[in-house]
Design a protein that fits this description.
binds shikimate-3-phosphate; globular; 24% strand; 12 helices; 31% helix; 4-stranded mixed sheet; alpha/beta
Length: 424
């Protein structure tokens, strides 16, 4: 008799942050690059669309695609507004690229993106010499007029990879020296990708320094799976096991330490989570995360832990409803300016399904318990809320009705199908 398998495996789609950066670097490279396993999600389509409008030759997004780069500083003015859709990463990273091109570009986005702050990139890029014009506040639509830029030594008030990357791309394209210091180190995919392409970019503690490079070579990259997408299934497996209590292997995941905060906190909650690096890809460690089901206990999340798990905090708040004790997340005010106000929206939804949660100015509290949860969830079009509450709804006995299931297309179009497969 063959034993029933007790471990399931899933390979979630390509990493969103690395996918954006792969397209941008390939468009700036001198020659033709090949990118495999890019994330085929709405946000990545936004970056591809913007780069195409600027003259880069980008094949339709597919598992194995080619990108014809134009060379550093050689993008061409678009004759239409650049539509960043829902994607903050597109808007902010491209701001840095466009600040170093001597033409005007208008960036637009959807209603959610048009509420998000852009002064965080406009301030340092203006100090470098670019001009930013807004129609209202510091929101999209915004027009960037770029040109020759000055070097900058920028001290960032937040640990934000989007801000850091905007400045690094501005320095790269303008061929000027830049340094960025952060209060807490944010994800370092831009640094790793540029370093793997031969650019002199170095970290010194929480500071990053980039030296001017002459050109960016074309490259081949196989995009590893997204730890932020893997986190959903890891959370489910840790809380209850999948498909009747099985363990879970999440394969081919980007194991960049600046992205693993959620997995470290799951361990602190008593979960049996381990990971092992198997290869390196574009400067990123890649390997398997294994989760064996076990109960969870409450945890305290502090400000310095936040950047490495910023996108996983809605999920953590949902899992905290299952954990013994009171979970507190502090120092996470950035959640208020994500795709939705994720502090208010998570707490409202947790209450709507019968959980015990409170808002804090810079975070939230959740009192765990084992009762069943049920009720309507309003995503506000926010993909990570839809998936976090989708996981809560997948737990036996819970009956959660997510209003906008389609919004997962922003980062993980097949989420519901993969969830059904993993839990079957
Ligand atoms: C991202 C950085 C983070 C993260 C976002 C992706 C990136 O934003 O929340 O989903 O790819 O650089 P912040 O830089 O605003 O923290």
């Amino acid at each position: 008799m063959i034993a029933r398998p007790t471990t399931r495996a899933v390979r979630v789609p390509g990493d969103k942050s690395i996918s954006h950066r792969a397209l941008i670097c390939a468009a700036l490279a001198s020659g033709r690059s090949r990118v495999r396993n890019i994330l085929p999600s709405a946000d990545v389509h936004s970056t591809a669309g913007v780069l195409r409008a600027l003259g880069a030759e980008i094949q339709p997004i597919s598992d194995d695609m080619r990108v014809g780069g134009r060379g550093l500083g050689r993008l061409a003015a678009a004759n239409e507004p650049l539509d960043c859709g829902n994607s903050g990463t597109t808007a902010r990273l491209m701001s840095g690229v466009l600040a170093a091109h001597s033409f005007a570009s208008q960036l637009v986005g959807d209603a959610s993106l048009s509420r998000r702050p852009m002064s965080r990139v406009a301030t340092p890029l203006t100090a470098m010499g670019a001009t930013f014009n807004f129609e209202h506040g510091d929101h999209l639509p915004m027009t960037i007029t770029g040109g020759a830029l000055q070097p900058i030594d920028f001290v960032s008030p937040t640990g934000s990879a989007q801000v850091k990357s905007a400045i690094l791309f501005a320095g790269l394209v303008a061929r000027v020296h830049v340094t960025v210091s952060e209060p807490v180190r944010s994800r370092d995919h831009t640094e790793r990708m540029l370093a793997s392409l031969g650019v002199d970019v170095r970290a010194r503690g929480t500071q990053v320094l980039l030296e001017p490079a002459s050109e960016l070579p074309p490259f081949q990259l196989d995009v590893p799976a997204d730890p932020s997408s893997a986190a959903f299934f890891a959370g489910l497996a840790a809380a209850s096991g999948v498909g009747g209590g099985a363990s879970l292997d999440l394969s081919d995941v980007a194991l960049n330490p600046t992205r693993l905060g959620f997995f470290r906190i799951l361990r602190e909650m008593g979960a049996d989570v381990s990971w092992e690096t198997e290869r390196e890809e574009g400067g990123e460690p890649v390997g398997t995360i294994t989760v064996v089901p076990r109960g969870l206990r409450a945890v305290q999340v502090r400000a310095e832990q936040v950047p490495a798990m910023i996108d996983e905090l809605p999920l953590l708040a949902c899992l905290a409803t299952l954990a013994d004790g009171e979970t507190e997340i502090r120092g996470a005010g950035e959640l208020r300016v994500k795709e939705s106000d994720r502090i208010a929206a998570v707490v409202q939804n947790l209450r709507a399904v019968g959980a015990d949660a409170d808002e804090l100015p810079d975070g939230l509290m959740v009192r765990g318990g084992s009762r069943l949860l049920g009720g309507p969830v309003r995503t506000h079009g926010d993909h990570r809320l839809a998936m976090a509450f989708g996981i809560l709804g997948a737990l036996t006995g819970n009956a959660i009705d997510v209003d906008d299931r389609e919004c997962v297309g922003v980062s993980y179009p097949d989420f519901w199908a993969d969830l059904a497969r993993v839990t079957a």
